[in-house]
Design a protein that fits this description.
By secondary structure, this protein is mainly alpha-helical. It has a single domain (28-134), classed as Orthogonal Bundle (Cytochrome Bc1 Complex, Chain D, domain 2), CATH 1.10.760. The protein has helices at 2-24, 54-67, 69-72, 92-104, 123-134; strands spanning 106-108, 111-114. The termini are far apart. Bound molecules: heme C (HEC). The site of heme C has 18 residues, from helix 3, helix 4 and strand 2.
């Protein structure tokens, strides 16, 4: 009986593990549905237009979890694999740094440290993600 229980429990745990791997995907960028946010047009605005907006934070949380968390950490708490994004300031300077990085990614020599998200995430999606990051306590 005990063995059976242990096997059942580990089967469930393995199942949960597999589901989490699937949920985090294979690393392909995940589209972010920005319905409900004010559209911003083609040209990138210089500063986060959604900072503090509850809807943007909610959408940004989803965008962050499906595209950034695997490297930058759950709840924007870095596990050391990539910089802690809470250190990026919630002001115009931090915003332009953030957007440049997200659009361009990061290379070290030939190694892709972070893939570029240009053309994959809309301006609205990137600012929503920044709004979520800005809303995290340090
Ligand atoms: C494959 C892992 C990976 C993914 C996915 C990833 N990043 Fe990064 N990111 C990195 C690494 C590594 C660095 C540091 C690069 C360097 O050392 O120059 C970085 C740097 C950054 C920086 C600059 C931070 C600083 O303090 O200099 C920002 C901003 C950033 N990432 C935002 C994001 C956002 C937003 C997403 C999701 C849309 C994302 N990243 C997805 C790995 C990743």
């Amino acid at each position: 009986m005990k063995t059976w229980m242990a096997m059942a429990v580990s089967a469930v745990l393995i199942g949960i593990g597999a589901a989490q791997v699937l949920a985090h995907g294979d690393g392909a960028p995940q589209p972010v549905d920005t319905t409900g946010l004010k559209p911003l047009g083609e040209d990138w605005v210089p500063e986060n237009p959604y900072r503090g907006d509850a809807k943007a934070i909610e959408i940004g949380a989803r965008g962050y979890n499906s595209n950034c968390a695997r490297c930058h950490g759950l709840d924007v708490k870095s596990g050391g694999m990539a910089p802690d994004l809470r250190a990026v300031e919630p002001n115009a300077e931090g915003d332009s740094w953030f957007v440049a990085r997200v659009r361009g990614g990061a290379m070290r020599g030939d190694a892709v440290k972070m893939p570029p998200f240009e053309g994959l995430l809309s301006q609205e999606a990137v600012w929503a993600i920044k709004s979520y990051v800005d809303a995290q306590p340090d």
